[in-house]
Amino acid sequence: MQFISIKQNFIWPGTVCVLVFLWFKKMRGLVLIIATGLAVWASDSLGAMLKEIIARDRPCHILTNVRDIASCSNSFSFPSNHAINSFTVATIITLAYKNFAFFLYVLALLIGYSRVYLGVHYPTDVLAGALCGIVIGYVGYKHVYLKIACLLKTRFPDIADHERPEAKISNH
Predict the structure, then answer these.
(1) What contacts 56, CB < 8 A, 6 or more positions away?
(2) Global pTM?
(3) What is the percentage of the chain residues whose pLDDT exceeds 90?
(4) Over the stretch 104-162, which tens digit does the pLDDT of each residue have?
(5) pLDDT at 25 over 50
(6) Rounded CA gap, 153 and 143, in Å?
């Protein structure tokens, strides 16, 4: 649980996935990576702001029997930024490429569960983070990814159509 809860453990696998994705998806992949980055920035900022406003102490600060499980952050608990960020990524990528849904949502659920298991969040922190992440991922897909993709398609039709002529970008 500690391994899956540490963000740095995903740097190399994430970098490899991004490079492979860019290799195969080119312009659409770049647009998705930019939109996902902006959505995660927004979700992380929202989570940090809500933590300061709500100011809920972490369970590891209150419950003595969970202090030794994991190192406890000095920030507040509600909502879980791990959950917000992982569900934002899962949602925006899944909306663009449905084949990744199972893997990404299972990973996001495991990350959220690890935060509760380690005693650094309450289940409601993770649930609120997941809901916020899903909403932000949806908004990021609809209002960032699709708009940039449509803009590129109208401005540079040869580049956008060259990648996958059968793939149509739609506002469903």
Answers:
(1) 76, 77, 78, 122, 125
(2) 0.81
(3) 37
(4) 999 999 999 988 888 888 899 999 999 999 999 999 999 998 888 888 777 776 655 54
(5) yes
(6) 15
- CB environment 106-118: b (16+ within 10 A), e (fewer): ebbbebbbbbbbb
Distance in angstroms (rounded) separating the CA atoms of residues 114 and 136: 22
What's the helix, strand, coil split of the chain in %, to 5? Answer: 80, 0, 20
Q: Which two tokens stand for residue 22?
A: 């860019």
Token reading at 4: 């899956």
Neighbours of 52 (CB within 10 A): 9
Q: Taking the CA atoms of the chain, what radius of gyration do you get in angstroms?
A: 18
User: Would you say 1 and 109 are in contact if contact means Cβ atoms under 8 Å apart?
Assistant: no
